[in-house]
Amino acid sequence: MSSPSPVSDCDYIHFLVAAQCDVSCVKAAECFSTNGVVISHDSLNRFLTRQSLNSETLWCEVGPVVEKRNGWLIIDDTVLDKIHSEKIGLTYFQWSGTHRKVVKGTGLITLVWTDGTNTFPIDLLCCINDSSSLKSKKAKLREKMEYLDLII
Q1: Element (H, E) at 124
Q2: With 0-12 CB in 10 A as exposed, 13-18 as middle and 19+ as buried, what is 130?
Q3: Whose C-alpha in 10, 130, 132, 133 is 20 to 30 A from the C-alpha of 139?
Q4: Cα angle vertex 32, ends 31, 36, to 5°?
Q5: CB-CB contact of 91 with 85 (8 Å)
Q6: Same domain, yes or no: 36 and 91
Q7: Same structural domain, 44 and 70
Q8: Contact, 79 vs 108, CB < 8 A?
Q9: Do 40 and 85 belong together in one domain?
Q10: pLDDT of 51-101, one tens digit each?
Q11: Do 25 and 48 touch, CB atoms closer than 8 A?
C-alpha cells in the first residue's frame, strides 16, 4: 500500500500557476521542499501518476483570478507526432505544421489565459479521431469554452 502524498491536487495546481515557465517534477520538489521537509521528484511523479486532475478542479482554482475581459485566451492546437509508432492509442493521421504534411500523432489542444504579465493554465484537450467520436476538434473546443464561460 502506498503512503499518502504530501502534496494535494490543489497544491500542484498552485505550483503550475506560480511557476509558469519552469514546470517539472524536479522544480516542483524544490518548491515544496521547505522548512526541513523534503519531497523528492519521484514522489511527485508517483503523485501525478495516481491523481486524476480534471478540468473542473483546475478551473475552480484558476477561474477566480482570470479577468475574462482583460486578457487573451491562447489556444494551441499541437500534434505530438508519433511517426515511428505501430500501435499507440490516441493516434491518428492529421496535418502537422512542423512536418508540413499529414503525420500519425496525438492531437492536443491547450488553453492558456494571459493578461500580458501573468499566464494561467485553463485546460488541456486530447483529441481522438475514431468512428465512435463524432465531435470534431472545433466542436470539442467550443463545448469546453462554453463550459468555462469563456465565449464573450
Answers
A1: strand 119-127
A2: exposed
A3: 10
A4: 110
A5: yes
A6: no
A7: no
A8: yes
A9: no
A10: 676 777 778 878 888 887 888 888 888 888 887 777 777 777 877 888 888
A11: yes
